[in-house]
Amino acid sequence: MSRLIKIPCAALYAAIFMSASLQAHAASEETAVADTSRPVWRDRLEEVVVTGTRNVTDIRHLPMTVSVVGRSTIERSGSASLLPVLTEQVPGLFSTARGIMGYGVSDGSAGSISLRGMSGGSGRLMVLIDGHPQYMGLFGHPIADVYQSFLAERVEVLRGPASVLYGSNAMGGVVNIVTRKMTEDGSRTALKAGYGSYNTLRTELTSRIRKKGFSSVVGASYNRTDGHRADMGFEQYSSYIRLGYEISRRWSVSGDVSLTHFNASNPGSVSDPIADADQSVTRGMASVSIENRYEKTSGGLSFFYNWGRHDINDGYHPFSEDPEENQPLDYRFHSRDVMMGVSIYQSAQLFSGNRITAGVDWFRFGGDAWNEYVAGENKGHNMTVMGMPQIRHEIAGYLDLRQQIGSWLTFDAGLRVDHHTQAGTEWVPQAGLSFHLPASAGIKVSVAKGFRYPLIREMFMWGIANPGLKAESMWNYEIAFSQTLLDGRLSYGVNIFYLDARNLIVQDMVDGRMMNVNAGAARNTGVEAQAAWRIGRAWSVDVNYSWLHMANPIAGSPQHKLYGGAMYMAGRWQVSTGLQYINGLYTSTGTDAATENFLLWNLRASFRITDWLSVWAAGENILARKYEINAGYPMPGATVTGGVSLEF
Question: Which residues, in sequence order, are bridge partners of residue 514?
């Protein structure tokens, strides 16, 4: 395998960068830039994105549906985590929760991200940070507590398969967190601190500097809460450093390191409480990238390395009548995992209206898991979890072609060939058309395949493991319409999709034994719509709605999701409010299926005392509605948080 990796990568990189040098003095690049006349309040509807293309591109030329949540919207949310604001702002996306702060891991955890019924908890939705995959190497799911607001300049959500560019786990879509940067020389430092209900504390500090081609971002945060139930405390420490340098007008290099540690407790469901269910988790991320930006070609080479250490006490059921369940566990579960990779890509304009992107990815992921005995006759000994340790590799090449035909049509097609050392090879195509109509309207039509390789947990861990599993696959068919009116003050869009997923990995009886098999299927149909209107200088409103029909219900994916928000900005005041209505949310499926319907009202306000000091307050679930997202875990009633913000 090492020869197969080194030779193609080196050859491709030499070829594409030779092309970059030959075209250094060519005519201007086709890639669009942002319209400076575009109203700044519409950060949610930015036209320039990088997700779905690997290069900066006008969103109107992409056949895929992409939502963008900008920095100002993230800051107004008042949330330490990105997931609540994404759930509000992105139609079709929903994240589970169990308390006021913190998601945790293992049994009873929350933070599962669902997009059109495809869940990140099962590895069918990928989270990226600056284009680099982020998931637990053994279990294959995102770690929700890592994705914090202070990291993000914006978040780009590609709704639908993104496997051509990002491979396995991008089956249902991607959430790409684009980190903070400085775009002009100078320095900015921001401190935010708040305190509220249930002894909840939120703090974050970010410093950004840019001077003569050098740039840096340094950030840190500390968050904690007692929780709204006993034994539901959460505490988190996070830090982030990013350094960058522009070698020349055409070349730049950057590197970053992020480290997060959190302690979480799980009290169990209200009907079956758990004692001593504590988790200590450390997650780290590092990457180094070099990029080139010529007039007719751009690309880059990046290396990333993610790691984690999980120490878990699954607790016990003190009120159980079974003596084996009502006693403290004599062992603790530990795991170490790694996810690393190298990505090389280059995009070039061969002739007018054309853009072709080629790339190679190599990923290495896996880890080790074991039980450490802390009591009983085995005290002091470790026992490796069945099938551990395990490491697997994924190597792929892809090609994406985009061609603008006149001023009214853009054609896009892509193909990925992806090989997994255990599950074999997948061919992944996609194609789409973007029609640019009069009156600032557009129609998009696309068809794309997504896939997900079996996870190491599914192939090798515990008694249900099956090393013979094959890849899951999905086809997504979509049509979308959008339009901008009133000189950009009013915009709206609607899209309809149908997805057909097969070979989903589920548990079933085989020869008298329960095991993982490729026997599941999902056929989901949906409608997603959104609109935003700048009414005047002070007022703006926005709304989004999604309807999802699932032939086979999936927990954590609501049938109806509606959000309406309004914002008032005048003088020193900024006030925003939002109503979110959820209907037909399955909190559990199967024989014990249960659904929830609820309405949440949030209100946030800030007042700028001086140019550098503001005070703010936020109220969540003001109506004090009783509801659950995870079955058996009632959510908190009305909560209030207030604090100060400094920026200089």
Answer: 509
User: For the chain, what percentages of helix, strand and coil (3-state, to nearest 5) are there?
Assistant: 10, 55, 30
For residue 22, what is the DSSP state? H
Tell me, rounded to whole angstroms, the distance of Cα 609 from its chain centroid.
35
> Using an 8 Å Cβ cutoff, are 202 and 503 in contact?
no
- Output the six-digit token pair for 303: 């290396």
Residue 194, H or E segment: strand 186-196
Rounded to whole angstroms, how far apart are CA atoms 623 and 599? Answer: 8
User: 36: which residues sit within 8 A by CB, 6+ positions away?
Assistant: none
* pLDDT-based confidence at residue 48 (cuts at 50, 70, 90): confident
**Tens of pLDDT, residues 359-397:** 999 999 999 999 999 998 899 999 999 899 999 999 999
Token output for 126:
């990928």
CB within 8 A of 53, min separation 6: which ones? 62, 165, 347, 357, 400, 402
Judge contact between 415 and 398, C-beta under 8 A.
yes
User: For residue 384, how many other CB atoms are within 10 A of its CB?
Assistant: 11
Query: What are the phi and psi torsion angles at 201 (to 5°)?
Result: -125, 135
Residue 442 has pLDDT above 50, yes or no: yes
Q: What digits encode the pLDDT tens for the residues 552-609? A: 888 899 999 999 999 999 999 999 999 999 999 999 888 888 899 999 999 999 999 9
155 contacts 88 by C-beta, under 8 angstroms: no
> Residue 234, Cα to own-chain centre: how many angstroms?
21
Pairing, β 297-316 against β 354-373 = unpaired
What whole-number distance in Å separates Cα of residue 79 and Cα of residue 84?
Answer: 7
Locus of tokens 């900066």: 56
Judge contact between 103 and 109, C-beta under 8 A. Answer: yes
Token pair for 590: 């199967």
Q: How far is CA 398 from CA 12, 426, 448, in A?
A: 12, 12, 14
Alpha-carbon span 179 to 308, nearest angstrom: 21
Are 633 and 614 in contact by the 8 Å Cβ rule? The answer is no
CB within 8 Å of 370: residues ≥ 6 apart: 333, 334, 335, 382, 383, 384, 385, 388
Distance CA(60)–CA(404), nearest Å, equals 11
Ramachandran angles phi, psi of 77, nearest 5°: -65, -30
| C-alpha 443 chain-centroid distance | 26
- The length of the chain in residues reads 648
- CA–CA distance, 128 with 176 (Å, rounded to integer): 4
Q: Residue 551 phi/psi, 5° resolution?
A: -65, -35
Pairing between β-strand 173-179 and β-strand 126-129 as defined by DSSP bridges: parallel
Q: pLDDT tens across 299-319, in order?
A: 999 999 999 999 999 999 999
| Burial state string for 516-537 with b = 16 or more CB within 10 A and e = fewer than 16 | bbbebebebbbebbbbbebeee
Amino acid at 449: K
Neighbours of 468 (CB within 10 A): 12
DSSP states along 606-628: EEESSSSEEEEEEEESTT----B
Q: How far apart are CA 137 and CA 453, in angstroms?
A: 13
Cα distance between the two ends of the chain = 52
- Residue 486 phi, psi (nearest 5): 55, 50
Model pTM?
A: 0.91
